[in-house]
Amino acid sequence: MIEKKENIVMNKSYAFALRIIKLYKHLLADQKEYVLSKQVLRSGTSIGALVKEAEHAQSKADFINKMNIALKEANETEYWLMLLKDSDYLDEKSYISIHSDSEELIRLLASIVKSSKESLRK
Fold first, then answer.
1. Going residue by residue through the chain (122 aa), what tens digit of pLDDT does each one get?
2. Which of 5, 22, 89, 93 is 20 to 30 A off residue 122, Cα-Cα?
3. 3-state SS track over 58-89
4. Which are the contacts of 119, defined by CB distance < 8 A and separation ≥ 6?
5. Taking the CA atoms of the chain, what radius of gyration do you get in angstroms?
6. What is the C-alpha end-to-end distance of the chain, expressed in Å?
7. At a CB cut-off of 8 Å and minimum separation 6, what does 85 contact?
8. Is 80 exposed, middle or buried (0-12, 13-18, 19+ CB in 10 A)?
């Protein structure tokens, strides 16, 4: 039996999406915030969806494109999280926790995009 290699970026982006969904529920129920919460939900959950889609990319270039879009979504999510914190919908402690996860995803995705582009050039 062939053992499937653990996909760290998939696992982390999925766990992050779950945190974003919980944040969305909190913002709706407790904060009555309906606009920014939808934005962070959309961008924060699309990261993992794009990473999953990249697993079956048609080519190396398609893989890079999907991972690059996931990176853009991670950057956008970071923006919405900062906005939620600075508009007092998200407290400092919660922000620091979820922001560190978003930064980790951004670093991982940037590294994957960079190394994939380099291997494509060879």
1. 555 678 999 999 999 999 999 999 999 999 999 999 999 999 999 999 999 999 999 999 999 999 999 999 999 999 999 999 999 999 999 999 999 999 999 999 999 999 999 998 87
2. 5
3. CCHHHHHHHHHHHHHHHHHHHHHHHHHHHCCC
4. 60
5. 16
6. 32
7. 91, 92, 95, 99
8. buried
